[in-house]
Each structure stands twice: as C-alpha cells, then as structure tokens.
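About this split. The held-out portion is used to measure sequence recovery: a designer receives only the structure tokens and must propose an amino acid at every position. Recovery is the fraction of positions where the proposal matches the reference. Here is one held-out target exactly as it appears in the evaluation file.
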C-alpha cells in the first residue's frame, strides 16, 4: 500500500462514511437503526434501487459502516463485506449482526480480492471505486469473482451535477488566493478530510467515462439520482446528482446506477452502474 493510500485508509478508519448521520454510540443498536433510517430518508431512491436485487451470495467492496450491506443482505443467503479500513469492517460486522443477516466482513483491498473465481451472484460497490488508486484493476477483480451472468452495481460520483458545478465555481473564484490543486480541493468534500488534513483521491465520472470504465461488462445502464450534499467546508443546498441502476431482464444484465453518498457529504452525485461480465 502506498503512502497516499495508507493515509486515505486512516481517514476512512477514523471517519467511516455515514457515521455523521448517527448520534448514538458506534455499534449500539440505536446507532444501526439511526444509520439506516437517516440514510434512506435522505436518499429514498436508494432503497428502491437495492430492493431490485436478491440472490445467493453478495459481495460488497468498500462496505464502510455496512448500512447497505445489511439492507441488501435481507434478500441474499450469504453476504461478504470488505473494506480497506478495519473500523469499517468492524462496524459492518456489527451491522449484519444487528440486522440478523448471515455473512462476514473483513479487511481487504478491492484491487486484490481474496476470493476464488466466480463465487458471487452480485457485487455491489457504492461510493468507492472513484476513491481507489486503480478502478480498472478493481473492476477486473470484481469481474473475476462474479459467477457467469452475475451482476455488478457501482455508485460513482457524477461529473455533471449541480454539486460538482458549485464546487468548481468556488474553486475558480478562490484559485488565485490559494495554492491548491482541483483534486485536493474537491477531496475536502469527504467527511473528516478537513479536520484530518487528508485529501483522499476523488474522481468524477461522466456517463461516457463510466461506460469506458465498465468496458469489460455488457448491458451497462446508467441513471442519475440526487443526494443531499455539502462541501467539507460549507454546507450547500445544491444537491448532488447520481445515477441509479435499473435491472433489465435476462441473464447478464447491466445497470448503471446511483450516487455515492458520503457520511454527511456525498459530493457530486454518483452514478451506479450495473453490468454483467462480457464474454462469459
Ligand atoms: C465514501 S466511503 C463509502 C462507504 C460505503 N460504501 C457507503 O456507501 O457508506 C468509501 C469506502 O471505501 C473504502 N475503500 C476505499 N478504497 C478501497 C479499496 N481499494 N478496497 C476496499 N475498500 C476501499 C474506504 O475505506 C471507505 O470505507
């Protein structure tokens, strides 16, 4: 793991995504209830998206505190959640216990999945791939562990959102007064990045670049959904715009989808993309 990645992982460990939505002590029953209620109240499209999936084995890459893992897990026989940060894996383990979902969580890297080929019906990864060093490698790994005809649903921050435009205008207006790259500026949207002085990698995707990223999959579909948003430094009313996936029929479908939320700060909207592996 390179130094930048170690730092980002430390940030996610100290500020697991979404924990700003709950005021109760971490891992308490009330904490998990608050996390679920608040997240899905803010993003009602999210449950509609997740309710469309069911099956045998589910893998979530970058499960964070495990809110989606436990929700999706209601309709799967077995779930596995992985996260680069130990705190995320531990909180997510508590989430599946709390919601009585069968499965396990562990610390692992989405770019080197510790699983055999073809073992999962669905791989879900929301608000994660735009942060990892090499999203193409992560998607190759996801494709490898999917069974033939399996599906992937990913949520990516959307480039053409009101939120991204808002951040860009602020950046341009203040660029002359600061010595800060765009990458560092927009990374402040992530929970904890301002306090910790850590700027995780953060990319924005257009429909076209998301499709390119999912080039190894077929039947890729994309949809934009709105998320509440605020920048790291200042709350904003500008909503993020995200893409939400919708299943097609038949085997090996692709969807595109959703939005990355961040704890209290899903930056730009995200797009989720669901797809079936090509040529399997
Ligand atoms: C913005 S959070 C999203 C968490 C969760 N999916 C959610 O929607 O609440 C990003 C998460 O991805 C994890 N992450 C980043 N890169 C990763 C990688 N290469 N492998 C596994 N997890 C990763 C981080 O530790 C963090 O928990």
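Reference sequence for scoring:
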């Amino acid at each position: 793991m390179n130094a930048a990645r170690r730092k980002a992982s430390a940030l996610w460990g100290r500020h697991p995504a979404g924990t700003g939505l709950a005021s109760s002590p971490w891992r308490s029953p009330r904490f998990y209830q608050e996390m679920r209620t608040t997240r899905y109240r803010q993003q009602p499209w999210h449950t509609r998206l997740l309710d469309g999936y069911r099956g045998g084995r589910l893998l979530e890459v970058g499960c964070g505190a495990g809110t989606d893992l436990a929700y999706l897990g209601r309709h799967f026989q077995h779930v596995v959640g992985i996260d680069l940060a130990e705190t995320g894996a531990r909180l997510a383990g508590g989430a599946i216990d709390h919601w009585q979902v069968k499965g396990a969580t562990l610390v692992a890297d989405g770019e080197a999945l510790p699983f055999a080929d073809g073992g999962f019906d669905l791989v879900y990864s929301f608000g994660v791939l735009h942060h990892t060093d090499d999203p193409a490698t992560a998607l190759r790994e996801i494709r490898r562990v999917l069974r033939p005809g399996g599906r992937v649903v990913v949520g990516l921050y959307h480039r053409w959102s009101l939120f991204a435009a808002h951040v860009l205008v602020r950046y341009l207006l203040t660029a002359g007064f600061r010595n800060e790259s765009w990458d560092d500026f927009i990374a402040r949207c992530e929970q904890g990045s301002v306090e910790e002085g850590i700027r995780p990698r953060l990319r924005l995707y257009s429909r076209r670049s998301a499709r390119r990223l999912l080039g190894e999959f077929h039947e890729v579909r994309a949809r934009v959904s709105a998320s509440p948003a605020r920048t790291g430094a200042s709350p904003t009313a500008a909503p993020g715009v995200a893409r939400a996936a919708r299943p097609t029929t038949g085997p090996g479908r692709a969807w595109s989808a959703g939005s990355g939320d961040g704890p209290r700060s899903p930056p730009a909207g995200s797009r989720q993309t669901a797809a079936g592996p090509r040529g399997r």
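Annotator remark: The chain has one domain: 3-275.
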